[in-house]
Amino acid sequence: MSKQAILEALKSSAMEKVAMPTIDIAPVTTDLKAYLAQSLATVAGRLEDGGMAALNARVEELMSGGNKVLSTLADIPGNHKGADDPHGLADVDFAVIKGEFAVAENGAVWVAETALSQRIAPFICENLLLVVEKDAIVANMHEAMTHLGKLDASLGFGVFIAGPSKTADIEQALVVGAHGACSLSLYLV
Amino acid sequence: MQKVIQTHAKAADIFCRDESRVDWHSKALWVLREKRDRAASSLPEWETLRALGSQIKLHTLRELPSYLEAFEAKCLSQGVQVHWAKDGAEHNRIVHEILSRHGVKKLVKSKSMLTEECHLNPFLEGKGIEVIDTDLGERIIQLNHQPPSHIVVPAIHMKKEEVGDLFHEKLGTPKGESDPTRLTRAARAHLREQFLSADAAMTGVNMAVASEGAVIVCTNEGNADMGANLPKLQLHSMGIDKIVPDLDSAAVLLRMLARNATGQPITTYSSLYRTPKPGGEMHVIIVDNGRSDMMRDKLLGEALKCIRCGGCLNTCPVYRRSGGYSYGHTIPGPIGIAVGADEDSTHSSPWACTLCGSCSFVCPTKVPLDKIIFHRRRLYAERKSLPYGKSGYMPLVGRFMASPLLLDTGMAAARVALKILPHSLLKPMSGAWGKYRELPAAPGSSFEGWVKKNRPELLVKSKGEK
User: Tell me, what's the ipTM?
Assistant: First the structure.
């Protein structure tokens, strides 16, 4: 009922008709990897060199140091068995998660639900290790959305993650590690 | 809940008593403005994005009925339940009905100015539901029993020592602790318990994508996602103005939102929710609450282009020096006057503005804020509801300024008075204007007189044109 009332009320709108503009912004053609590294640094993330070998070594080191590592990548075995209930991931120290692509202009990585067993995984872990194929870098958000448009239509949830969680709510002092991950490393493989 | 009983100037007076705090507040916000400038200038296409953002929003606002219906249809086809609320009371009823159906005792909420506007928290608390605000700034002011004083940094008015005292009392942090990192860690631990024990989560909506039936939620802390992805039940409240046609339009706004708010290239998390989680329920509540009324006025309707980045607050010389609470409205600052002046029973908020235009200049979607605020003044005058005082003298000022004879004689008298009368006699007559200013030195002649003497050719020319 309120739906009809709202739609009815909108009929007396005085706003003028404006055509939907064409969004045509040329992407930068600079070295995308360098651009990504620079953007990632401004959002307090780290770009790791060394590819899959470096990631494997890091995960081994973390697990031998007693950390609980949850991995959603088939070829990286973690030591956290996951959980049927999202609350069961509350003790994850490090999560290794596949991102679909990274955005050079802002350091954001698109993580889709299809790469996760639980939507909460990239948020509830203490630290996040994201993995993106080295060619999967787009210049800007316009290109990113073009990619999203091609994604699986059944996708129910996805997120752009740009660095670790952070806040500046107390006197504008930047604190890394609010409710989500306290650190973020991006591995290009 | 805030009740408006004081004019902006009176309420600002209270804030201005502590001059060092005013300077501190102003500086903190100006830092954000400077970061915004650096972020904006780092993109060569910034002005193009602003123009696009404005056009996209104008286009969508005109076509709202069709986009809202397309959005709803897509949501329904993806298993999301959609509700419509014409005002805040209906919104609150719907939310409570959903929560009570699921026996919800504790709700975690991420930032939503809309739920503030609807006064949802006190409503739900009155029904016995615990509501936990999870954005750190919002949690601070919730514990301090205050509404937000800024739309992006809601606790900007508080010093770290005050947050330390509050956390000592409420969260048991050590006495005297005022280090932002340690205080944030304490809040992280406290709020994690809340996330893990909540029965439902609620978020605001930054953009609702009509073509996808998806809502986009942006946070830096990850609190919206920590909330929404743990319990089975998730709710998202959105104003009808949050619709964008498609992902391409969302990209334009996402590129500007964080850059214009805090100077970041994008918020840490920009999440897209399209279906309920497996075994869960997702509800979207679409709220009008006065927005369709605003669109009956072409200029006021443009205020709905706003994407709530807070950039206009950070740059506003009046906001920075009078504090968010002086506006007596949920949303303070220039955008608050633009969208909320009708609820200001003192009719004073449109005068909390110097019409400097800085807000319009920084706005990412080109909301003509200064024009809207001026328009608000005119609407008050037309309705004969000018704030106390102004209705008395403003018509006289109008008559005075409209008559060359009165104006010339008056100004000549003022020049003489400034020269010969004692300061102590004249100063009180300058009213609020003179409170923080010295009286000017009297010029030798009127401007017209100066032109006659020094640039007579200008006078001849303008007369010739007549």
Answer: 0.98
